[in-house]
Specification:
Helix 5 packs across helix 6. The strands form 12 sheets. This protein has a 6-stranded mixed β-sheet, covered by helices on one side. It has a 5-stranded antiparallel β-sheet with strand order 12-9-6-5-13, with no helix packed on it. Strands 32, 33, 35, 36 and 42 form a 5-stranded antiparallel β-sheet that branches. A hairpin with a 2-residue loop joins strand 15 and strand 16. It folds into 4 domains: 81 residues, Immunoglobulin-like (Sandwich), CATH 2.60.40; 112 residues, Macroglobulin (MG2) domain (Immunoglobulin-like, Sandwich), CATH 2.60.40.1930; 186 residues, no CATH class; 144 residues, Immunoglobulin-like (Sandwich). It is flat. Helix content is 13%, strand content 39%. By secondary structure, the chain is mostly beta strands.
Length: 580
């Protein structure tokens, strides 16, 4: 019996330990998320939340708070009426804020203020009657906070921003309700709580919409936080608006292109007939099975490669303004970021079998790209493989009659790369532009009488993506400045995370002299005095760039080339000075 007693005690302790671990686990899966917009819009109108791990989704107002819970119990979250709201004003607050809410029943009520890390700042507990109540929040530091109200069977939350309280004695103080009645119609700072079941490690795809703008973020929440969506314009020649997602350094459309026009409004030829499709060597598009009603909105259009090729389409841009058809190197950058071609396909594909044929192996969509199997149209005009494969053109030619494309399929998680004939019809995804705007000036034109540097037309601009290509004088990109000495670089080689070695030449003039980058001309003594110390400096002499920033032009600043670094969706404006 003694042995059994110890055995029972051991089992009891084990169960208690497991219960504690379980409770801690559930507590760790109890997060509050709120949303804000930046870029083209600061308003979040609607949020769609998809739990990709569980295959569940929901839509909520952008001003509401998403409550992720490990277990959704019988506690009710009030919504769809005014009792679901917490009104906090002013919000942002400085010294204090007034909080107003309505309870649906009399109950003991616990009000807790947490910071973004989940740390409890202050808490109060009161027995409150059914109806409206008002509290003052005082003495909190700068930051973003969540307010949680638990009252009987009900729970709801609010968000509060503090911009500068000098009082550090945090309090939540009950106020006379009658004093707040005049503020009942003030909607500023009002939020509802929306509950969603969440298990630690679940992958969420969150799409925030604001008017014509839509941005996707993929996240695995591990704490309460505010999620910021950068809105980017992505509207094609037909006026279709596309959601976008940032994957590594790149920003991609998350849907296939479906425009029937170039972005200047010029129509693209619709080629329905199979024989005409096979014979065509000019820009054309079609819908799968020539059925726009069934396939357009979900899968987009199928395009031949001539639509992409500037030489074939008169230099017109198929993509929305500020976007371009993805290049083959950009596809490589994407797949490398996702772990290589052997696994990238699964991370690109929409999970499940709503659109994909079973088993849709390895599909997680953890990139947010949401690849769909739009099938293709072969070079003889036959339609193939809807729901089995998705193929996307790159803008990179592989030979006179073919170009590179990338595809993913239902049976594996590989991202495949092929070169196919230009008559084939594939889907297209666009990627956000990145560009460099250069202005080239000639320092040899400087005189005491005319201290203005002249523009340098027909200067040769060379970009190298590696030190080896520079050492061997094998530029990866070459162009010339226009009549105004201007150069706009959009279609750049995508390597080395957008870092480029820059050399600019015209006859015997260069942007580098003896290994120093030319930064201009000294116009006067004050110009010399204000510049980093440069031995031998004189009025009319060349300025050199202080590369290491130590305030002295020395041999440590010799580089033999200028270096430009930029990120996707960024424009670098740079003035380049050339001289002897």
């Amino acid at each position: 019996m003694k042995t059994n007693h110890h055995h029972l005690k051991f089992i009891t302790c084990t169960l208690l330990i497991l219960l504690v671990i379980s409770m801690l686990s559930l507590k760790a899966q109890d997060y509050l998320l709120s949303f804000e917009g930046t870029g083209e819009s600061t308003t979040v109108t609607t949020v769609k939340v998809e739990n990709l791990s569980q295959g569940k989704s929901m839509t909520m107002n952008g001003s509401d708070i998403l409550h992720l819970m490990g277990v959704v119990t019988g506690i009710e979250t009030i919504k769809d009426n005014e009792t679901s709201k917490i009104c906090i004003y002013p919000n942002p607050m400085k010294e204090y804020a007034r909080m107003q809410f309505v309870l649906p029943e009399t109950s003991e009520t616990i009000i807790t203020l947490h910071d973004l890390s989940g740390r409890k700042i202050v808490q109060t507990r009161d027995l409150l009657s059914k109806g409206q109540h008002t509290y003052d929040i005082q003495g909190i530091e700068d930051g973003i906070y969540f307010v949680r109200i638990n009252s009987g069977r009900y729970t709801f939350n609010g968000r509060l921003i503090c911009t500068g309280s000098q009082n550090r004695d945090a309090k939540i103080v009950y106020e006379n309700t009658m004093a707040a009645e005049e503020k009942q119609t003030d909607s500023k700072g009002m939020y509802a709580e929306i509950v969603m079941q969440y298990t630690s490690g679940d992958l969420l795809k969150i799409t925030a919409i604001s008017g014509i703008y839509s941005t996707v973020i993929i996240d695995v929440p591990t704490s309460s936080k505010i999620i910021s969506f950068n809105y980017v314009a992505c509207t094609d020649g037909n006026g279709n608006n596309y959601p976008v997602v940032k994957i590594g350094t790149q920003t991609w459309m998350t849907e296939n292109l479906k425009t029937t026009k170039f972005n200047d409004g010029t129509a693209i030829a619709l080629v329905a007939n199979a024989s005409a499709w096979a014979a065509s060597s000019t820009p054309g598009y079609c819908w799968y099975n020539n059925d726009a009603t069934t396939y357009k909105d979900t899968y987009g259009a199928l395009y031949n490669w001539y639509v992409v090729d500037a030489a074939s389409n008169g230099g017109k841009n198929l993509c929305p303004a500020g976007w371009h058809v993805s290049t083959d190197p950009e596809w490589t950058t994407l797949t490398n970021y996702l772990g290589g071609v052997s696994v990238a396909g699964g991370k690109l594909k929409e999970p499940g079998t709503s659109h994909w044929y079973s088993p849709n192996t390895g599909a997680t969509n953890e990139s947010g790209f949401t690849a769909l199997p739009a099938g293709d149209r072969s070079s003889n005009g036959t339609f193939w493989d809807i729901e089995l494969y998705g193929s996307w053109w790159s803008s990179t030619q592989s030979s006179t009659g073919s170009a590179w494309d990338w595809y993913v399929g239902y049976a594996d998680n590989i991202s495949w790369r092929y070169d196919d004939g230009k008559q084939n019809g594939f889907s297209i995804r666009c990627i956000k532009d990145y560009k460099i705007d250069l202005r080239v000036l000639d320092a040899t034109s400087w005189t005491l009488e005319n201290q203005t540097l002249s523009i340098a037309p027909n200067a040769i601009i060379k970009l190298y993506t590696t030190k080896s290509s520079f050492d061997n004088n094998l530029p990866d990109f070459t162009t010339t400045s226009d009549a105004n000495g201007m150069v706009q670089l959009n279609d750049l080689p995508v390597q080395n995370q957008y870092k480029y070695i820059l050399i600019v030449e015209k006859s015997d003039l260069r942007n580098i002299k003896d290994g120093y980058i030319i930064g201009g001309v000294f116009n006067n003594q004050a110009d010399i005095d204000s510049w980093p110390t440069q031995a031998g400096a004189y009025i009319g002499g060349l300025k050199y760039i202080d590369v290491n920033g130590d305030g002295i032009i020395s041999s440590d600043d010799r580089t033999w080339y200028d270096l430009i670094s930029l990120s996707e969706d960024q424009t670098i404006t740079k003035t380049v000075i050339i001289g002897k």
